Amino acid sequence: MDDFQELARRRHIAMVAHDSKKLELLQWADFNRRTLSRHTLYATGTTGTMLTFELGLEVTRFLSGPVGGDQQIGAKIAENVIDLLIFFWDPLEAQPHDPDVKALLRLANVWNIGVACNRASADLMISSPLLDNGYRPHRPSVESVRDGWSKLRAT
For substrate, which residues are the binding ones (predicted)? Predict the structure, then answer.
């Protein structure tokens, strides 16, 4: 495979985990280390540090989620950089930055980004043949997103 084909198959994967889920994400990433190492990885603060120092993965690290990291990843989604979001979130524990979490998940949905919220969905996504075959999801145009927000505000 030439360099262009390899770049075409390289995905940009963002990883986030709430404190109570960080160990689970680390174990999942360790199991999938070989696959993850073939892609461009991003993560919020502590999660990115763990992935780098515990597993040796090259990760672009953003701020911690509560101080802006979730929003930084959301910006990368809106910029059409992120292909997949692995977000091990804790639905049973209140998060002080819950509005940021909801905004991140909303952006992933608006821009049609695959989201895995637990180990089962992450396993299915990372093992899918679509991950490496050049599949590109349909991304809405900026205009269609603006139109959607306009309609939403009108109701």
Answer: 18, 22, 44-47, 64-65, 97
User: Over the stretch 3-18, which tens digit does the pLDDT of each residue have?
Assistant: 444 545 799 999 999 9
Which residue ranges form the domains of the chain, and what is each CATH number?
A: 3-154 (3.40.50.1380)
Which residues participate in the annotated binding site for substrate?
18, 22, 44-47, 64-65, 97
**Catalytic site residue 3?**
no
pLDDT in tens, 11-48: 999 999 999 999 999 999 999 999 999 999 999 999 99
Max intra-chain CA distance, the chain: 51
Cα Rg of the chain, angstroms: 16
Give the whole-angstrom CA distance, residue 46 versus residue 63: 8
Q: What is the identity of the amino acid at 26? A: L
Residue 116, H or E segment: strand 114-116
At CA 83, angle to CA 82 and CA 89, rounded to 5? 80
